[in-house]
Amino acid sequence: MSTPDESLFEEAFAEFAHAAELMVDPVDSAVIHGRVRRRRTTKGALAAALAALIVAVPAVWWLQESNGQEVDPRPAEETTDETSTAETSPAEGGTGTGAVPQGQESDVEDPALPTFGDLVGAEIDLPSFGSVYDSSCPTAPARPSDGTPDPESGQWFPDVDAGPVRLLKVVHTTLEDGGPVRAVALFGCTPSEQTIRQAVVVAGDGDGGWEVTEEIAVGDSGFALWDIAPAATAGVLLLVPEQEPTGRYLEIELDYEVFRYRTREELADVTADAYLWGVTDLAVSVEKTANGDGTWTAAVTVANDGGHESQAIQLAMCASESLGTDGPETVPECNGEIQGVAVLEPLVPGDSTTMEWTLTPEPFDDWNGDEQAGGLYFSVWMRPVAYSVDGFVFDPDGENDYDDTSIIVDDMPTS
User: Which key words are in the record (predicted)?
Assistant: First the structure.
C-alpha cells in the first residue's frame, strides 16, 4: 500500500473548510469576495469543525461558484494584514522613525513586504513608463504619491500636484506554486490624458528601503493595464481593457481581458475562466417629479445592471446656483469640478438604491443669464471606488454613469 501524500490531504482540507464557511454564511461577501478593507474576525475553527462533518462533500461547489479556481481570490481570513488594514493610509505603513523595519536588516533572506503606506513617498527605482515619458514620469528614482482619492472626504480625482508617479494599489500573493508571499504594487503616471500603469514586485532591500525584484508589466497603447488582483492559487491577475477609458465622463463601452502572471512563466489569458466580482455595469439615473407647490423631487437611483457584485460606489453631485437642494447629502454648487457627496454600499446584480432631494428654484428673475437661457441643473455622477480592495474594480460601460435633470422657465409658475 502506498504512503499517503500529506500535502494533498492538507490542500483538500483547506478547500473543504472554505466551502463549509461559505455554506455557513453565504451572504457574507467579506468572506466570499474579500471586498472590504476592514479586518474580519475569522471563523476558521467553526469552518474546520464543519469540514470534518462534511468531508464527503466535494469542494467543487466553491469552484463552480467562482467559475474557475485560477481566478478566485483566497478567503478573506488568509489575506495578509497589510493588504486588509493599510490599503490607502500612508500614516499606517512606515515606522515613521527612520529605523530599519523589522525583517529588513542586512542579510535577511526573506525581506519585508511593503504595505501601501510604506511605499507612498518612499524613494524607489522603478522601470521606465516608456523612454518618451522619462522626463514627465521620473522613475530613477521615483517618489510615488498616494494616487487614490479619499472618497469619504469627497475627493473625486487624486492630488495631481503631489507627484507625477502615483501608487495605486498593493496586494500580497504567491507568484509560484509553493513559493513565498510577495508584494505586487501597481503604479501609475499620466503624462497626457491617458494614464500609464505598471505592475512590479517590491521587497525590502535589507537597508530599510524598497526595491523592485520582478518586473511584471508596463501598460501601453496596446496593453492598457488597469488593475491587479491576487490569483486563487499562485500568481497575480491583470485586468486589461481593450482601450484606456479617458475623459471625464468615460462615455465609452469597453471590453477587457484578464491575464495571470507567474514567476518565470508567460502571461496566460484567463478571461474565459474569470468570475469577476467588482467588474460590473453600474448606472445612475435621475427622475424629476413636481410636488405642486413650486418645488420638485429628484429621485437619484444607482443600480447594478451587470452580472457581478460591485464594490463600493462613490456618488458626486452639483446644482445650479439658483437651485436650492434638500436631501440626505449636501449638494455643492456647480463650478466646473466634480465633488463627491457620498459612498454607497456595494450592490448585488439587479439591485439598486434610491435617494431623494427636494429642489427649490429661486424666482426666475433672480436667475443669472446662463440659467435663464439654459435652465437650472441638478447633475449626478457615479463610479465604483477603484483600487480600494484586493479584487478588481471596473465598470466596463461608462455611458450610464452620469445623468441630470433641469428646471426651465416653462416649469416655473406664472404670475
Answer: Membrane, Transmembrane, Transmembrane helix
